[in-house]
Structures are given as C-alpha cells and as structure tokens.
Amino acid sequence: MRFAAVMGAMFVCASMAQADSPVVADRGLDGFVSVDRLPVPEASFLQDGRTIWADTCEGCHGGNKYVGAPKITSLRAWEPRIAQGMEILIDHAVNGFVGPKYTEMPPRGANPDLTDEQVAAAVAFMVWTSGGDAVVETYLKTLMGEGS
Ligand code: HEC
What we know:
Layout: H1 2-14, H2 44-61, H3 75-82, H4 86-95, E1 97-98, E2 104-105, H5 116-128, H6 133-143
Antiparallel strand pairs: 1-2
Helix pairs in contact: 2-5, 4-5, 5-6
Bound molecules: heme C.
Heme C (HEC) binds at residues 56-57, 59-61, 67-70, 81, 84, 88-89, 92-93, 97, 99, 101, 103-106, 108-110, 119, 122-123, 126.
C-alpha cells in the first residue's frame, strides 16, 4: 500500500514536464472514469488515442466491474500489465486476449473499423494515464524514429 503510494508520487513527479499530467491512484480514480475526468496529453498521437479510447474502450476500461477490464488510472491493475511492454499490450488489444480468469479483451475492443494504429494510440493513452507515462514516452520516440 505505502509502496504503491510512493510509486504513485514518483510517477506524478516524473510527468511534471507534460502539458497536462496523467492522473493515477493505487486502485484508480473513485467511481467510473469517463474521459472528461482524464487529462489531455501534449502529443497528438495520444490525443487521438484519448478520443478513440472514449469511443470504444471507456465502457469497459472506465471501471466496469462486470467485465473485469483493468481500470484506467489504476496503478495496481496496470503495473504488471505495463511490465509486459508496449508491443505485447498492443498485440493483445489488436488480436484479442483471454486472461487467466477467463475475462476477455475482444479484438480491437470489438470495433473492427479501428486500424492497428488507432488501437495502438488508444493503448498508449490508457498506459500513459495509468502509471506508464515514461514507457509511453519511450514508445513515442521509437515511433518517430528518434535517434536513428
Ligand atoms: C467488452 C469490454 C472491453 C472493451 C470494449 C475493451 N476492452 Fe480491453 N480488456 C478487457 C478485459 C476484460 C481485459 C482483461 C483481460 C484479462 O487480462 O483477463 C482487457 C485488457 C486490455 C489490455 C491489457 C492486455 C494485457 O496484456 O494485459 C489492453 C492493452 C486493452 N484491454 C486495451 C483496450 C483498448 C485499447 C480498447 C479500445 C480500443 C479496449 N481494450 C476495449 C475488456 C475490454
């Protein structure tokens, strides 16, 4: 508990450079987290992700207890998932994924109209505001081919 709180504080500090900081809590923000409670990131890729997230992912990932989806802004729910790395998270979101408790992430959030890139943007936004902002920053740099 205490450890997670300290980690949370660290994430908040680490993101001070952002125009609008991600919001996180140990178990996520209280109640259902609709998109209007979430910050607008600086990067346009993440801004697109925020819009896509609101349209397709919010219904489950905003904190729907019945489907068992990891709640956005929850450090506890996302830390072990983020540890898998962006590539696996995006693969699971694009192709679908059934977890150990038989809860199911449907391919593309059950929205077949989304492109791979749109799904990736929604994943990146969700990770960004669930404790993984540093991971997402690195991912964005890779996307932009920086340093190559
Ligand atoms: C119908 C409900 C539902 C919708 C809609 C949905 N998800 Fe999920 N998602 C889940 C569930 C349930 C899990 C957890 C599966 C498990 O680990 O048991 C999950 C897990 C995930 C994970 C973690 C995968 C991992 O490896 O741990 C990512 C990333 C994800 N969803 C992204 C998205 C994105 C992006 C969208 C919107 C485009 C979306 N989801 C829409 C239900 C949903």
